[in-house]
Amino acid sequence: MDVVLASHGPDAVRAAVREVRPELIVAPMLKSALPEDVWQEHTCLVVHPGPPGDRGPSSLDWAIAEEASEWGVTVLQAEAAMDAGDIWADGSFPVPPAGKGDVYRGEVSDAAVAAVLLAVRRYADGSFKPRPQSDPGTRVVWRDFFRQEQRRIDWENDSTATVLRKLRGADSQPGVLDELCGREVFLHGGHPEDRLRGQPGELLATRSGALCRATRDGAVWIPELRPRKNSGDPAPFRRPAASVLASFPAPPGSGPGMPGSNDRPYWLPEIAVPLELPPNRTTWSDIRYRQRDDIGFLFFSFPSGAMSTNHCRRLLAAYRYALTRSTSVLVLGGARDFFSNGIHLNVIEASSDPAGESWTNLVAMNDLVEAVLRTTDRLVVAALGGNAAAGGVMLALAADEVWCRTGSVLNPHYRNMGLYGSEYWTYSLPRRVGAETAERLTSEALPVSAATAERIGLVDRLVPVPSQEFTGEVERLAAEVAGDPDLARRITAKATARHADELQRPLAEYRRSELARMRAVFFDPQAPYHELRSAFVRKNPTGSARPLAHGGAG
């Protein structure tokens, strides 16, 4: 088995096929067509994120726009016409009220994995005949590319529900093109607001980097903005909405206000909400705390799982608040989609001092991880409803137990970004998987499935439920742990073990050693990290087209 990244172009695909001579080719996510000579000479199965008969490049966009309650995935044999090949397998799933990217990584991914495995089994069997789409039972529907004109929000006339549907259908790509303060930007993400109101289209407030904007009958929160590439903005990629808006001229009549900053526009109020929101509130916040009996739940959800300096500091403050509450079990995470992918490369790339911001962000991330590692008076559980990478994995490993939804993928390494790594990985990773496996994971720099993560000890418990059911299942499992008569002994034992580890080698030494190596990279203008970071943020292909053959990039 081998992997080739189609983003490196058709020649890379052809070269890999010539060398490997595969019996079967599977394309789980294509943004461009397979080379004709490849699919003519080899059986190629393509995953289409739509039900049998659905064709076109914007399948999931249309499903969300048309409020489909159920959607599907189809495994097709590649041929000349787009999505027109014979059907090897298919599957269906309920469409949740979530962003397109979230649904793709959750429900679509789960259904696609099941369908691909079935298709591969059928191919291996040799007797299965794929179903032509010309069969009477298949209704063929062509759906055009979903254009920005169809996504455009009419702030004067669209209801809040319509605005949210348009925002969710374009998240995480391509966003909804709109105009703010005379500048064209793409809006990313959308969440309802229950109290703030204003004239349709009016900018009302900021909160933790997000922007609140009034609709005809309510208001919505927009977490991120992306300037157009031709706008002249030096950072034309997704960033916290308030920081993008802060770089725009203030609207006429805004007044002097408070002194401006790089984080938010001075002319809008910052409207905070408490960590513990009343159950009747419907508003956006990226960090929430809830308590049920003697179990604390600290939920957090950051776009793309990226954690800026501000995210890290606010989550640390929330964690310290959670520690003041009388609980025996504290659950970190527990929401669907990304757990954490570590430091915020987009914010770093947009900074006037990327090296300095890299350092500040990393120190804040280390402070958070250290707080979790030093918690000895209760059991801490990291609940991963989605993917995690780099420092985000190490944040999870700082907990006593790691629970992972079966569809999640972990990347416990830093090498692809040209970094040694930090967040106490030299302590947390070897103590879980052993020194040899830790070395292999960080040097090979390959994704790890949830099942493999459990097998090697990276994860303690698999949670085999759909994304939409993850939070409820985590709450049920946490109640079981809290009710375990052995819990008090476990907490005492973990405190004893932490004390013994500290005597053997203090956490401060791990921190100093890791940060010294990271600082040397951050402040070296010639270090590959800077070019790799920029390429990643600006979505320029880097590294090897065949990561399995070359043991990772970076």
TrEMBL record:
The keyword Transmembrane does not apply. Residues 147-229 form the Formyl transferase C-terminal domain. Gene3D superfamilies: 2-enoyl-CoA Hydratase, Chain A, domain 1, 3.40.50.12230. Keywords: Homeobox. GO terms for molecular function: catalytic activity; DNA binding. It holds the Pfam family Formyl_trans_N. The keyword Membrane does not apply. Residues 9-101 form the Formyl transferase N-terminal domain. This is Putative Hydrogenase maturation factor HoxX. It comes from Streptomyces afghaniensis 772.
